[in-house]
Amino acid sequence: AKRSGRNTFAGFEPGMDTELKLRRELEADLAKVLERGELSLCFQPRVSMKTGAIICYEALARWNHPERGLIGPGIFIPIAEQSGKIDAIGNWVIREACRLSLDKLSGAPISVNISGHQLRSRGFVDNVLQILEEAKFPPERFEVELTESILVEDRDRALAILKAMKRRGMKLALDDFGTGYSSLSYLRAFPFDTIKIDRSFIMNLAQDDSSLAIADAVMNLGRALHLSIVAEGVETVEQLTILSSRGCDEVQGYLFSKPMPADIVPREIEGALAE
Ligand code: C2E
Ligand code: CA
Ligand code: CA
Ligand code: CA
């Protein structure tokens, strides 16, 4: 085997036993996460470059584990996907995001991340519509964020589902753009409203010509297709300045706000975009 890092061999690292054990443990705990009320949502504002107004809030799931503390979605969402728990968790996320928007955020538009398993689950569109209806949340203020990989598996079915969602007034965003298959034909065929440029490109915007070239290309493409372009993971004024000069429509990132509980997430952005 090849050495792949300190004290690790590819596929045979000494920590794997415990890692597998931890995974199994989390998987078992995840089965009861909803009934135990251990999940919560944070919200992160998406800000208009032109006006500084908050366009919408992205809902991001958090797991407050009784023994292990806060666990991020990067860890538990993949486990939920593999264990089949993602549909129940995903429904909860939609319901809770609607409730919190209406209760705490004056009914502001929200966006929710959807995994492939959810999208392909039976009756997904009707299921979402029913949750929105029960919550009395207008579909026009509800956006789903999907990654390219979801569209590639079973393209025709995914296309039909997304078209049905559009017909019912919901909005669609293509998340993490530039990291996946990046087939440009998808962008034309699928009825997206928004493209989110992946944080990895924004991160290196000021240092790296190729990141800037890619971000530029995405923004030009977005304009040509009349899509709204969001830069995610904006952390510095320097990045903001570059994005602004290139005509990026919306920005999201720690520069404006980290994801926060609905009670304390900013209701407006001060100063950050002032000339
Ligand atoms: P994502 O949809 O790409 O979300 C953006 C991630 O970047 C979030 O991590 C957010 O906290 C982080 N972020 C935002 N601004 C900045 C910044 O300026 N700098 C840095 N360093 N990070 C920033 P988070 O909350 O850990 O979520 C990770 C991923 O988990 C999300 O990536 C999304 O794919 C997934 N996820 C989160 N909530 C849900 C959910 O309810 N359902 C599903 N299916 N997936 C979810
Ligand atoms: Ca997202
Ligand atoms: Ca993203
Ligand atoms: Ca991501």
UniProtKB/TrEMBL annotation:
Domain of life: Bacteria
Domain EAL as annotated: residue spans: 23-273
Family: Belongs to the ammonia transporter channel (TC 1.A.11.2) family.
Entry's localization field: Membrane
The name this protein goes by in its record: EAL domain-containing protein
